[in-house]
């Protein structure tokens, strides 16, 4: 077989594999569905997204977050955010921030972490056309997103 034929065959095989992975990833991607959750007892936050999670230290937010997480996130991230699923263990998401000694720098780091979490949840994670996490924008109000984050943070060290 001449070299040109081998190169063409390899190029076509690579293209076919890429298209297979691309279409398979989309065909079997998770689709976000709004969870059934009672947010009563949580302070209403309104339509404008806050820059900082207002629910840290709020026990009711942890309960709401656990409910939503186990309905919508546990399939990939593990039950009760204990990891072990096909997606990252989220309990260490704020670990670098927590290790910062300077109070102002730690606060600024947590603001960045809040922004990352919010954007990840709202817009999902898509890499090379493959949906690894569906977008939740329009399905989850900020009260629920922040409650899920507080729940995950409460699982640190477990």
From TrEMBL:
Pfam families (UniProt xref): Cytochrome_CBB3
Cited InterPro entries: c550_proteobact (IPR030991), Cyt_c-like_dom (IPR009056), Cyt_c-like_dom_sf (IPR036909)
UniProt keyword NAD, yes or no: no
Any coiled-coil regions, as ranges: none
Keywords: Heme, Iron, Metal-binding
Gene3D superfamilies: Cytochrome c-like domain
SUPFAM superfamilies on file: Cytochrome c
Domain named Cytochrome c: residues: 60-156
Superkingdom of origin: Bacteria
The name this protein goes by in its record: Cytochrome c domain-containing protein
Native organism: Cupriavidus numazuensis
């Amino acid at each position: 077989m001449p070299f040109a034929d081998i190169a063409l065959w390899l190029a076509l095989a690579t293209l076919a594999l890429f298209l297979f992975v691309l279409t398979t990833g989309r065909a079997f991607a998770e689709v976000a569905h709004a969870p059934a959750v009672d947010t009563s007892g949580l302070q209403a936050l309104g339509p404008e997204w806050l820059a900082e999670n207002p629910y840290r230290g709020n026990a009711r937010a942890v309960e709401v977050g656990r409910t939503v997480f186990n309905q919508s996130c546990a399939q990939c991230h593990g039950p009760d955010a204990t990891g072990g699923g096909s997606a990252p263990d989220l309990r260490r998401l704020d670990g670098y921030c927590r290790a910062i000694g300077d109070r102002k720098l730690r606060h600024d780091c947590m603001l960045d972490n809040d922004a990352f979490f919010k954007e990840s949840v709202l817009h999902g994670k898509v890499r090379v056309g493959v949906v690894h996490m569906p977008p939740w924008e329009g399905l989850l109000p900020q009260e629920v997103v922040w409650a899920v984050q507080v729940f995950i943070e409460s699982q640190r060290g477990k």
